[in-house]
């Protein structure tokens, strides 16, 4: 299942902001996801953060777990 961003809710922007707020390194996030069985690369995470590709439900669930946030945090309106 792929979830595409709407004009007012840009999942990638919200994910990127949460990562930056928590001062997490992307390499660590990618490693955690890969160890959990999610096939992701640095390029894919970049594309998710910049709303170039759709995020899968599995990726979203794992990111929320790694970022220690609620999935609803990814759906905040961007204005």
Structure explained in plain terms:
The structure is a single chain. The chain is mainly alpha-helical. Helices cover 51% and strands 5% of the residues. The protein contains 4 helices and 2 strands. It has a two-stranded antiparallel sheet with strand order 1-2. It is globular and about 35 Å long. The model has no long low-confidence stretch (mean pLDDT 92).
Observed structural traits:
79 residues; 2 strands; mainly alpha
Helix-strand pattern, N to C? Answer: EHHHEH
Radius of gyration from CA coordinates: 11 Å
Can you give the helix content as a percent range? Answer: 40-55%
Mean of residue pLDDT? 92
Number of distinct helices: 4
Structural class: mainly alpha
Q: How big a fraction of the residues is strand?
A: 5-15%
The strands making up the biggest β-sheet line up spatially as 1-2
Topology (elements, then pairings):
Blueprint lengths: L1 E2 L7 H11 L4 H10 L6 H8 L5 E2 H11 L12
Antiparallel strand pairs: 1-2
In short:
The chain has 79 residues and is mainly alpha-helical. The protein is 51% helix and 5% strand.
């Amino acid at each position: 299942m792929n979830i595409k961003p709407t004009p007012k809710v840009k999942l990638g922007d919200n994910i990127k902001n949460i990562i930056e707020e928590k001062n997490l390194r992307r390499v660590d996030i990618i490693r955690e996801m890969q160890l959990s069985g999610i096939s992701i690369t640095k390029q894919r995470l970049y594309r998710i953060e910049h709303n170039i590709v759709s995020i899968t439900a599995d990726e979203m669930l794992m990111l929320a777990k790694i970022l220690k946030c609620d999935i609803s945090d990814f759906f905040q309106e961007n204005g």
